[in-house]
Fold these 2 entries.
Entry 1:
Amino acid sequence: MKWFKKLPALLALMMLPAFIAPVAGQTIDEILARGKVIIAVDVTTPPHGRIDENGKPDGFDPALARLVAKNLGVEAELVPVTSQNRIPFLLSNRVDMVISLFSITPDRAKQIWYSNPYANDASVLAAAAGVTVKTLEDLSGKRVGVPRRTLQDQILTDAAIKDIKLMRYDDESTAIQALLSNQIDVLGTGSLVPNELNKRAPGKNYEVKIVLREAHYGIGIRKGQIDLQQWLNILVYTLEKNGTLNELAVKYRGAPLPKLPTL
């Protein structure tokens, strides 16, 4: 069964953590004492996150989350989140950290802290080859779908394009399914998604039309967690230097990463 057909079960899975009492650790020592690290991950945006054939989180971000647990020497509990609830889950102590296509932005940094970047990407507009979109003005009159509270949502909202039909979805998989079923003309997404679309729905030749903004992903934690941020920075540094991040990138993204910046 294709990943985008699993939406009902996926949404039910995402709702389960909302009923869990806050259990997140505030320090590395608390996480070690508990013997488990609770990490929020995206499972709706391949190749960074999806649900595999066994119903388990898979992709670049879940793989990195499991490496975090392995290097801490604790069990990994992966909690599916969407773009709009990952910060609330973090701030309400439902998770210890977020590894979920979390683009580093000054606005988000008012609420949470980030590790150094572990991957790069770009927010883009994607559509089938036959759809003409060369500038933002070309979106006038078109149905454009975006996941809520993503960079592409923010950029297109701020652009205030005349007559755009901006349609917001609760998660990436719903927005993608809207594109595949011709409910929208253009999708605001990550730069790697069109390749995934073409694997699953060949023939329309989905492609990037406009790059809205380059981005880097960081691991999100609560403000003030200095020891956890330091440890995560060292882990990201180590995984980049020993080639592990590139191995994950080749496996899931199809190409090695460029040199990553530090904060």
Note: The chain has two domains: 3-118+218-253, 122-215.
Entry 2:
Amino acid sequence: MFIGILNSNAVLYLWDQFFLTQWDIDYLEHATKVIFYLLRSHFLRANDYEQMRLVFLVEPSRLYTSDIQTAFIYFDLNQQQETTQSIPSINRQNLITKSEGKHRIGFKNISLNLLVPVVIER
């Protein structure tokens, strides 16, 4: 149940919620939907199978536990109203990803000299 997919703190939070609800299948479904909603922008940016696979395997572990908690509570309180459009904005990793493309750092005109010590045996 989310082990190896989410970070350990997020797994512990969700497991606590599941224990409190006696592993109610509805809460398992809510947690899965919340994770998909939080990763929505990553899924939409994926252009091929490999990128989609990476979203499934890598991005959930990058989610902040507090974002999962906030989204889980929000979804649980508002599930009858189907107001899920604002859940993707809870993911603070989206802000980091958006700003990554704007600032590029690179190196120009770098040369390296490789010195290999020679050992002469007599």
Note: The two ends are 64 Å apart (CA to CA).
